Every structure is written in structure tokens, then in C-alpha cells.
Amino acid sequence: MITNKIVLRKKYKYKSFCDILDIEVKKGTCSKNAQLKYLKQYLDILKEKTLYSVLAIYAEPIPKIDGRKVKGENENRKGHSGTSEGSRNNNNPYGKYIDPILTNYFNKSESKTIFTTTNMLAQEIGLVNRNYSYVTSNKKRYYQYSWNEVNGNSNYTCMWDTMGAIKGVLRGTIRSSLERLTNSNLITYQESYMFSYNYKVRIATNSEIETIEKYEKQVLEKLETTKKTMQFNDKLRDKYYSEVERLVKEKIKYIDKMFIGYKIRVIVDEGKLLSENELNEHIKDLNYVFRQRINESVIRRNKKEIKEHCTWMGQMKPNIEKWIKDRINSNYIYYAEYIIETLIKLDYKYIVPKIKKEITKEDIENGIVSWMDLPDYNGNVANKIKIDDIDLPY
Predict the structure, then answer these.
(1) What is the pLDDT of residues 331-355, one digit of tens each?
(2) What is the reported pTM?
(3) Three-state secondary structure along 299-359?
(4) What is the DSSP letter of 75?
(5) Left (φ > 0), alpha (ψ -120 to 50) or beta: where does 378 sit?
């Protein structure tokens, strides 16, 4: 399921709703109901006859509610997951930190109309540090840089898993906070395609969005891929976005850059602002909680794979895939903790300049550098570059 293109409160017919989420179109009524029940763990969905709209995207899935009757109890009483209704409806461990931080940020902004992105807001409020945006767009360079930092104790599958876990939380968390602030009449916001030109940003018109979506469909067909597959292939994703942007620039004039972001209008700029100490404490606490929860999710995945693919004596079962071996490997959690530190911890050193100097396999293939230009890494460079060829199960 992909939520990047969902426009909150927009009404979709069922097939369009499935297409935009990149999920299977069901035929039977029972199948559709089961699918909707599953989606409601992740999205606040309003269904009106044959139309579907998303009111919010949860930062984390809501636990399933067991509606079966409890044997031996009152007939009208139902069993449940053990989670209260209030907590099920507010299953967001970050909201109490993010909402006041964002409110403070918006109210202190000189402009009451703000154009921004998920990553920019995530860094502003302390969910990630300043290494995050560059690293997640340059994973191979980061992997090669980290090879020496962790003395060769890196894990390629772990890198994808951990960065995927971080990215999976960010967008939903930011959107949920913006939605709550909208419901409190503090802001209004739109999430859509944005165009920048001469350092000025504007939101795309409806006709321009139709043009973008047309080209997106054309490029996907040309590359013979899907958005779901593309999310886990940096090289293919970069090629896709570059081609779509090229086509859009040819059609629409006065564009330097195209991206998906938010247009936020501040309605209320009065009220108590957080003191410097209060703001710093909120950011510090939020960052700590986020690091802890990402780390917990990595540990759960590691334990799950060990349980499914190891014998009771701790030995790997035969004929398991490379990425499963990576997830079972003893360095999986160690390397995940390193990634969490480098991308999330606020006081971690700025590593982007060093990562930019790393040489990737694509640099060599494209003739930017030759094998003779590679620095001496005690024989590890060739191994590192070969690791980039691993096919992951996405």
C-alpha cells in the first residue's frame, strides 16, 4: 500500500481508490469489506455510498479489535484487544510532542503562508537530523561510507529495512499532526504537487496535476514497473522522477523544480508560545521516543525472522534467501542502531560532505571515475560495490 498520493478528504470511486493506493481491486462484497477493514487499521476512511475519502493517515497501525463475544460473560459484552477506545482512536505516541512544536514553529514564522515538505518539517521538529534527507537519496554512497565507520560490520538489507521504517512513520506522523491542527482551526493546509521557479514556490493547478499524472502513467509503462516496486530501487526511482520532470517542464513553462509538498496557511498566530527550554525539551523527548520506537521495530523484525527461519538450536534452516540471512545475522541490530544514530539523533555529526566523496559502482559505469581512481580500502572496495547488486524481495 502506498499513501504518498492520497489527497485527504478527496472523494474517490472504488477502482480509483485502489489504484492510488496501489492495492488489488476486489470483486465480491465480502472481499471489499474485508479489505476496507484492513485499510482502516492504517487510514481514517469515510465511505459514502460508492465513494471513499481519507480523513487522516495514522502514524502507526491501529490494533485489530476482536469483536467476538466473551464466553461466559454478558451477551452484550464484547472482547477486544485490551486497548481502550480512546487510545485506539488516538494511537499516536508522537502527537503530544509534535503538535505544540509545529504550532510554535508556525506562529513564529514571518510568513503566514508556508510551503514545505515532509522531510523539511521532520527535521524542523526534531524527528530526524540534517543527515537524513541526503542519505536516504544516496543510500549506496552512505553504505560505502559506513563500511569503514562500522569496521565492515554493515548489513545492506538492514539499511533498506531501517530507512524504510523511518520513512514509513514520517509522512503519516506529519500528516496526522497537520490534520489535528486543522481540526483545531489553527491552520489550513493542502498537500499537492509544487513548482518552484526563481526561488518562488506555487501549488500546481488541477489541469497541471492531470498533466503530471498522465506523464507518470506513461513513464511507468515505459519502464515496465510500478510505484510499489520502484520505492525500493533508487536507480529506477531516480530515472522515473527525472523523466517525469523532464516531460512536465517541456509542457509547463517557468519551472525549475517539481516536488510534492504542503501549502500551509496559519490562521491563529496568537496564544502562548513555548519558551526556549520548553521547546528544546519537547524536541529532545520526541527525538528520543522516535529513536526508541524505530529500534523496537527493527528488533521485532529480527526476532520474527529468527523464529521463522532458525531451528530451536539457533541454526539457520537450509535454502533461505540472502535478505533473510541478513535479517538473522548478528550484525543486523548493531547496524540498525548505527543508522538510527546517524540519521535521527540530533547531536550526531554532519556526515554529508564525507558521503559525497564516496565512489559508487554507477560512477565507474558512467565513466565519472575509473577503477584506477579508487582509493585504497585494503581490498574492501570491490566487495562493497558488488553488494549493490543484491536483489531485495520488494
Answers:
(1) 999 999 999 999 999 999 999 999 9
(2) 0.70
(3) HHHHHHHHHHHECCCCCECCCCCHHHHHHHCCHHHHHHHHHHHHHCCCCCCCCHHHHHCCC
(4) T
(5) left
